[in-house]
Structure formats: C-alpha cells, structure tokens
Amino acid sequence: MHAGFVRYAARIVLDAEQLRAIEHPLEAGLAIVGPAGSGKTAALLQRAVRALRENADVLLSGPGRRAVARLRAGILALAPERAPICATLGEVALEVLQTLRPGVEAELISDVRAAQVFESVGARLFSLDWTEFVSAEIDPEITGLRAPEHFSSAAFRLIRRLRAAQISPDRFRDLCLKGATKFYGKPPNFASADLLLETGPKYRDSLRVTPQDLARQHERELDLVKILVRLYATYVETLVARGCLTGADAIYEATALLKERGPAAFARYRYALIDDAQDLDAGELAFLEALFGAGLPGVTLAGDEREASRVYAGARGDTALKNASTVAALTGSYRCDASILQLAERILEPAKKAPALPHDAAVEAYRGATTDDEARFVATTAARLVRDGVAPERIAVITRRLAGAIDVIDGLLARDIPVDLAGQASLFAFPAVQDALAALWALVDPYRHDWLLRNLESPWLALADATIAQLCGEPSQPQALLFEIPGDVPEESRGRWDRRRDLRLGRNVTRGDADAELSAEARERLGAFRAALARWECLERDLDPPALARLILAETVAPALRDDARGRFERGLIARLLDGIDTFYARDPSASLEDYLRYAENVADADADLLALDVRDSDALHVIDIEAAKGREFDHVFIIDARAGAFPRYYVPDAFLFTPSHGMIPKENVGNDARTARTAKFTYLHFALKLRERYNQQERKAFYCAASRARRRLYVSTSGRATRGAAAPEFLEETRKALPDP
Question: pTM for the complete prediction?
C-alpha cells in the first residue's frame, strides 16, 4: 500500500538540518517543520529508530489510520527487527481507559455507527415529541429544523467538534450563554461602511434590525442552545456511558482521567513521535499533554503549517508546531521539481509577487469545454505516460471530492489503466457494489422490487427491457390465490391502487406466473435464478453469513467481471465489501444477513465525510483526495476540477456555527415574524471573523499539498467557464497566469 513511501524513506540522504533534528535529545520536546518534500517524515522515522535503540517503549502515530499505516510501513523498512507501537491516538486513549478502569468495558466504534445512534437519539426531537415542545418552553421554529436530516447532520458534526475540542455539554451551554449575552447585550455597529460593503446585496437587509428583531433572534438562539445541549448530553449518555466510543470520545474520556490522576498513572510510552502534526485537533493535543506532561517532553512532532487543510474540521496542530519548546526547521527540498514547488507556493500566497515560471516548467494547464473533455485529457495523458514506461502506481489523480472523479475513473478504465481509490467516499455508491448487494437481497427478500429489478438488469441475468416489462405486468393466466388480499383501502385511492401490484413482479420472478409469455432464453435464465435461490436457502442453514455472502457473490457478480482494468477495479470494490461484512459479523456474530443489508442501506445514506476508502491495489494508478494524498509522492500528478466550487470548494456554512468566544451563530432567521433570511449575528460575524477568506486560505493549503505530491510533472485541469473568483479563487486560471506566454 505504501511501497512508494518506503522507497522514498530508504533512498533519501540526510542533510545537516535533518541530522541535527535526529540527534536532538529524545527527552526534550521537538517540532520538525519544513516545506513539502523537505524530509520531515524521514527525520522523524530515523529519530524513532534512535529511540528504539534505547530499548524504550516508543509510540509512532499520526492523525488517522492512513497516517499510522504509512508510518508503520516506513518504520518496518528501517527497523524490521523491532518496531515501535504504531497506533492512532484514539486507540492509545482506549488503552488508557482499559488500563485505568479495568472493570469498565469499552470499545471503539466508527463515526458512522455513532451517527446512526445519534440519529435515533434525535428522532423524538424531529417528531416534536419532547416535553419542552409540548409545554411550549422551546419554540419549534428553530434554525435548521425545517430540514430535520440536515439539522441532524449539522448537530452531529458540531458534537464531534465539541468532543475534539474537549468541551463538555455544561461547558458548551455556558459558552453559548456567555456569547449570546456578549453579542445581544451590546450589539455591534450594523451600519459600519466596511460591513455593508463586504455584505452582498442579498443579505444587507439582515443588518437593518430593530431592538425587537434582535430580542426575537436572541430568544430563538437560546432555544437552539437548549436543543443542542440536550442532544449533546443524550449522545454522551447513550454512547459514551455504555462504553461505545469514537476515537474522539476515547480521547476526551482518557484526557479527563489522566488530568485527574496525572501522567504517571499511565507511563507505558517513554517517547512519542507524531507525523502530520498540523492536522491534530485540540483534543489530541490535550491528550498528548495529559499523557506526557506540560511542554510535551519526549514528544516529537513533525508537520507543515502550509499543509493544514483541516482547520475548519477542528485541526489546531499548527499552533503546537509554532509553540514547541524547540523547533527544527528543514529548508531543503527533495521531492518536487523546482517549478512545481514554485507554483504551489505562488497559489498558497497569491499576494506575494513572484516571477513567471520558467519556459521549461514541469507544469501543464488544461481547460476543457465539458467534463468529458477534461476526463479525456486526463485519461489520454495518463495512457501516454504508461505507454512511455511510467508505472501506473507512479501516477496519481488528486481531487477535492472523490465523487467528482467518476468521469475520470471511467476514462482511465476504458483505456485499460488499472485504477484504485482512497479518500472520503461511500463504497455503496459504485454500481458493482450495488449489483453485489442486489444479489444478497435476492436471498433475503426477493420481493424488494428495487433490488430485484437491479438483479434482472445486472450482468449475471441481463434480461431485456421487454422481458422485464412483461414480468412487471399481470400474467395472462395467473395462479389462483389461496387467500384473497384484503381490500381495506381508503376510498379515495381505491380506484388506482392495487395491493397485488406490490407483489406481482416478485411472484412472476420467483413463482413463474408469467413464464408462458417469455422467450425460451429468458425462461432459462429465470429458471437458473430460482434454482440458485433454492440452493442458497438450503446453504443458509449451514453457512455463516460471511461465507454465504462469498458463495452468492462468487456465483453471481464475480463471473460477470471482465479480465481487464475495469474488472480488476470492480473486484477490488467487492473485496472491500466482503471485508466490511467480515467486520460487521466480528462485532455481532449473531446478526443475520438481513441485518447487514439494512445496516448497509443506512451507511449508504450517511454523510460522505464520515466514510472513507483506502487503497488496496498498490500497483494501480491512484485516484485520491487531499487527505489521502498526504505523506505520499508520485512522479506525475493530475489535479482535476480546479475551479471555483469544486477545488476550491465554496464556503457553505452549516445551519449554525459555534465559537468559544461568540457561542452559537445561527445562520437562518426563522419564525413567522422573521423579515430576513439570515440572522444579524451570522451576517456580522461572517464579516468580522473573515470566515470565507479563512476558508479559501485553507483551500489554498489543500492545493499546495496536492501540487507538492508531484516529483516530475504536474497537470492542472478543469472544464467549463472560469468565474470572476469573487466567492472562491480559480486555481486553474492562477496556474495559467503563472506560466510563461507560449
């Protein structure tokens, strides 16, 4: 998975700056900083090797599973005889809880499972069933509640950030009340010239507020705070108190426990080395301090503030890098062509005057008329590189959202270039996985028409549209029903509603009611399908669900996969699905296959930010997002969809924001007497806090990170017309302006 990183770590020649960082006393806190490709990770790993020579217990970690897996591969290449403990900080926090609370059972759960539990917690709220609503203590006209699903997602994102920031429900309520008093007790000048100029005409009316308007908005804000505090407290009671912890929850609880008992209570690790430290959140930093003490003695952080692309998700590691007791600054560059790094730095700091790139710059810009044009450019260029001898794994396509790379993936697969994915995306969004789920649903419930229709259209049955239409209709000679279906149908819908229609397709497929009207080939395929269903039903008694799922997919989806790049890609997706089934049943061995399929349906509807895919095929071209690209390098990198709204993304704030100094910041102005769409508080603080500008700067850091993955050549592309760059910058146009005239 991380073969390229291992090659990089093995070949780099350490310079004097790196050697000084490696030789710095291990007992002292240290931050290793420097631009992309300066050898921070190589120095960190060599420092870990040095710590291992002391026979000390060493922790090697980073923000997330991918960073840990990459570090594990790197350290095993350097010190295969004795490796340090490689674990996420959430896993270490769970270890702390299990050690210091031996009688309490605790387990780590995914954010997806936590979100599902949270959704059930909020179900009573969304049905307006809380006693506070009934007694009119809380006004049901609350920011975001007009769209309950969005409100639930926004509330869960807020709670995750609060946990990561070590803010308890009580502390959250106090900060919200203090922020509300501060703002509404002494309102700012809404008539400021700068404020009016920076606010778009659409929202200027939100600044023309009367004292009565502010009082009403204040009251609505306090109601919102009551709801969110209640949800937060219920989340803690439902999950955390029962030992079901996300990584952030485990860190929160372990930090509180260590603060109570002191670092000596858990003294397993003598040294810790943390890579990509700029992406650590406040909770992770607080946990490290609780574990090692103030000033982080024995902790080495490595990172680059210029790659801090998760600030809006709560990352605060850039502050820790700046405030470390000792900072080792690396200035060399061992990865990128000089012109690529020059472009990356120019995008990062557009206000800084810089000369045009040289005529032989290793950068190419392309704008197509349509997304098909862009996909064709990327696929054609990548195919040429492969023909010229570049290994597919030395090429990467980097995007801000994997969902926006589907056309590019199809173009690459059409040219028989092996492809694999990594980043935030739902496995269940891919057609091959949906075909696999449909095959499993055929056994569990052949009357689920949505999945049954997919089976009939899938490659393993491949019935014609005319045949499917016949199966959906009433057969000319239907079998007589043993029992008449009740006719308890509302009078107003009796004329167009027929309960038999809900079962007709399933009966025609499984029972053969319409076989006489089908072609011989269609009857043969349906006969094989029925025989397979009968065989699977018999095997269901003897096989556990994972084994049964493998058998069903081996008989249905697998034979239809081609022996080319597309088939290889889809086999990788099915392998991920089977791994997920194994994980599900390892957690709940008594669950049925139907339990997993219903779980999969819920996960498919989850927030994409909670889902993630990791690379399985290390020999394929990698299509990855920014976070999956960190710590990696490629010879050729394509940054796609580099236009305003895609990369960089537009700043679209949630229904409500929160800052410790201002409390809640509701965006939507609700209520029958609301005269404007936005609240005055949101409009004012959007300007005062420079939210969009700070968000766009984060997106620039994301581009810097993506561009600096390229060693030899960088391609930047998009499609469609360029915007004026007012709401978000146009990275492709900035790239073209940086290039010399042809």
Answer: 0.90
